[in-house]
Amino acid sequence: MFLPSYLVALLAPLQWLDRRVLWLERYLETPLSDQDQRALQVACARSGCRFGKFYHWYLQKKVISKIWRTISREGVLRMTSSLDRSNYAALDEALASPNGLLLALPHHGLYINTIVSLVERVRQHRDIHIFYGDPATHPGNDVFDGLCRRIWLDDPQSGVSILYDNRQGLARALRSLQQGAAVIIMPDVFKDELETLQIPFCGRAMNIMMGTAVLARKTGATILPVVCRPQGKGMGFRTEIGPQIACCEPFEGEGVVETGLLNYRTMLKVFKFYESIMDKEIVYWQFARQMYAHDVELARLDQAGMLDAAAALVDDARLHVPSAFAFDGTVPAVTRGGV
């Protein structure tokens, strides 16, 4: 275990704090608003931990971010290998197929470590591309961008390339997936909320893009969802690999179904796997405080509840008022000359 891991383990008692500590927030350079505090309290309660868990976790992120800025390529690979506690059998199984592969992971845990490990393993078998926002328009990506360039782009034989989230990057991702390459993509972010759809996720309604499903459908690629989880007392991590997900097709006897709905069903499968892991440790998710800033918990209805809700709508007298227009667009006789 290298020195930063010892430091993180030494400061583990931070996890037992049950209140805010302003000087610690200043040191971590993450001032919290009252709304942030309430949101993180929800995330910590859902994760079964005290508020101090957020501080200890943010300390790990701060330590490793500083390391990423200066560490050499060889140092990155040694460090990542020493911290990795993953079983990659499911990844090896997916790589046995000639289809393109979309490795879809959220901003959870030490996800950059998972990306490094995935790229190093996959590039031994096929070309792999890392798809993310251009740091020129996404300033928070500058450290990650510099790290990727330092590790792989300085070696033209690495089989690794960067694809920015723009038209050129998207076109290249489509071509590469059709040719059997792998692409790492992070589907828990979006640029325009108007282009998203909502799904139930960890007790809230979450906006997500359909882009991962669209890429898979257009290229015949397989989606392999993965989640990075903290492991051990230091900065160890474990990459959990989900089932291979193909684009959803209509159910038997369902008839013609819009492609948009099929893409939505596909993304539900992806995020269902994420939720199975993240729901009890959501404090490690980068966007937890934004999601839990919404006070209203998402209601979940079982089949009986849905039928009761539908019956209530059908029995609503307001729905039985004669419409001004018939379904064919004509004005019903009973309303002509009336209001």
TrEMBL record:
It comes from Stenotrophomonas beteli. The lineage of its organism: Bacteria, Pseudomonadati, Pseudomonadota, Gammaproteobacteria, Lysobacterales. It comes from the Bacteria. GO terms for cellular component: plasma membrane. It holds the Pfam family Lip_A_acyltrans. GO terms for biological process: glycolipid biosynthetic process. Keywords: Acyltransferase, Cell inner membrane, Cell membrane, Membrane, Transferase. GO terms for molecular function: acyltransferase activity. Its main location: membrane. This is Lipid A biosynthesis acyltransferase. It is found in: Cell inner membrane. InterPro entries: LipA_acyltrans.
